[in-house]
Amino acid sequence: MTFHLVVARYLENLNWLRRIPKNIEPWVYNKGNDDLYPATVVLPNVGREAHTYLHHIVNQYDTLPDYTFFCQAKPFDHAYDFHHSLRHWAAQADHKPLFQWFGHIIDTDTPDGLLFQTWSKNEDQRHLDLAGFCRELFDEEPPAAFPFVLGAQFVVARALIRARPLSFYEKALQLTQTFPDAAHCFERTWDKVFGVEGIDKEWLAGRKTVFLKPIKAK
C-alpha cells in the first residue's frame, strides 16, 4: 500500500518530517520566500492550504497513491499526536476508511458562516458565504450545518478522489483564488469535496462542538 504526505508550507520548520514512517513519501509545497527546505513545487502565496492541496490533486490525479495525507506544515497545532496518527495508518494493513479527519476539535458552522464571523482572527467580523460556495462548487443548496474538524488536515483514498472527475478539482482549484475566503470554505467542506460524510451526524446528536481528546495547554 502506498502513501503520500502533502505538506502546505510557508516558513515553518519541517524537522518533524524526519520522523515520519519510511513508507510515507513527503511532498512539500513551499509558498515562503526561503530555500531552507527542498520543495517538490514552489507555489505562489495564494489560496492558503486549499490551493496547495488542490494543486497536488490536479497535477497528480493520474498517479495518486493508495492514500494521501494532507496537512499544514505545523500540523501539531490542531493534531498534537499527528506522528502517532501517521504511524498508525502506515502500519495498519486493512480496514482503512476512505476518508478521515485528523484533529481534536469538531466544530460546526452555518451556511452564512456565523462561526467564522465570530472567530478571533476575523477582525472585521465578515461573514463566510458557505451557501454561495456550495452552489458554486457543488451546484447544490447548502446543508443546514457544516460540522468539521478544525485544521484542514485529513487522509483520503485515491478511489474516493477519483470518484470525481479531474474537471471538478480544476474548478475547485480556480475557486481557491476567486471565491472570497475560499480556504475557510474548504476547511469546512473537505469531506463534502470527496463526496462523503466525514462526521456521523447521528453520533454528533445535535452537538455543535466536540473535544475529541484533551487539549494540551501551550
Description:
It contains 8 helices and 9 strands. The chain has helices at residues 48-60, 82-91, 114-117, 130-138, 158-161, 166-178, 182-193, 201-204; strands spanning 3-9, 24-30, 41-42, 67-72, 99-101, 105-109, 146-149, 154-157, 210-211. The protein is α/β, with parallel strands linked by helices and 218 residues long. It has a single domain (3-106, 149-201), classed as Spore Coat Polysaccharide Biosynthesis Protein SpsA, Chain A (Alpha-Beta Complex), CATH 3.90.550.
Distinctive features:
single chain, 218 residues, alpha/beta, Spore Coat Polysaccharide Biosynthesis Protein SpsA, Chain A, 3-stranded antiparallel beta sheet, 8 helices, globular
> So how many helices?
8
Percent helix: 25-40%
CATH architecture: Alpha-Beta Complex
User: What is the string of SSEs from the N terminus onward?
Assistant: EEEHEHEEHHEEHHHHE
Provide the domain count.
1
Distance between the termini: 36 Å
Task: Please count the beta strands (DSSP E, at least 2 residues each).
Answer: 9
How would you concisely characterize the structure shown here?
The chain has 218 residues and is of the alpha/beta class.
Per-chain topology:
Blueprint: E1 3-9, E2 24-30, E3 41-42, H1 48-60, E4 67-72, H2 82-91, E5 99-101, E6 105-109, H3 114-117, H4 130-138, E7 146-149, E8 154-157, H5 158-161, H6 166-178, H7 182-193, H8 201-204, E9 210-211
Parallel strand pairs: 1-2, 1-4, 2-3
Antiparallel strand pairs: 4-8, 5-8, 6-7, 6-9
